[in-house]
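Format notes (please read before filing issues)

Several people have asked whether sequences and structure tokens are stored in separate files. They are not. Every record keeps both together, in the order shown below: the sequence lines, then the token lines. Line labels are part of the format and must not be stripped during preprocessing.
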Amino acid sequence: MKKLFTIIFASLMLMACQTKEDKVQDFVKMYNNSSSMMINQMIRSTKASSTNADQVNIDVNTNYQSSDLESELVSKSLPELIAQAIKSEKSGKELFESGVKFNLKVYSADSKLIIDKMIDKNNVNQSVDFKSIAEGDKPNSNELNQILEAFNKNLPMVDQTTGTKIMSIKADENNNLIYTNEVPDSYIPMLNAEGADKLMKDEMIKTPQIQQIFKQTAVLGVNNLKYVYTDSKGKVIKEIVITESDLK
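Then the structure lines:
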């Protein structure tokens, strides 16, 4: 028993003797060892580094072109999402609380710097428990909306080619994603035309973006996608619901 207590005491002393720089280097090592798990259709690669005990540098290379509307929305939302993910980890939370800053740089597929943002404990929001989600727990609609808030902060956003505004992305009580879009008045007759529902849905299903949304949000427990189209006064013109079974 005495030997057991000696081992436990020695282990506690070892942890207590870790300097701030040690903790930063441990985090960098942990981040880089798990970076392959973050790679998907959106993120091509990511790497952490540090040259001092007060800052961690994180580079994220995405698959988006710098001129894409989707690239702009996702890239602007990445800093908060990554900050929440870091804060979900015990070591990351400790670094935030000890004053460590995270310098996040996001690059497009054509190597253009899209976002260069410093994140610290003063500008990171209440964290969603990404760790439990990674372990298989599905977030409820409130938690899902907390995640989506990172996107909604950057809305509305205008598609310059069509004039359509993405107004919001929300989750309802059944974890369906609802995309609300404001369309120019000139599009309203086309949306109201006979057969427009089926034609729009058939075309949307064919796009790789829809398949990617279902694939990427499966871990979040997202069920269906609902696209709501309104006029400039908020009146609903058309609603299109897409289920995963529609893709088969």
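For reference, the curators noted about this record: Confidence is low (pLDDT under 50) at residues 1-16. The radius of gyration is 22 Å.
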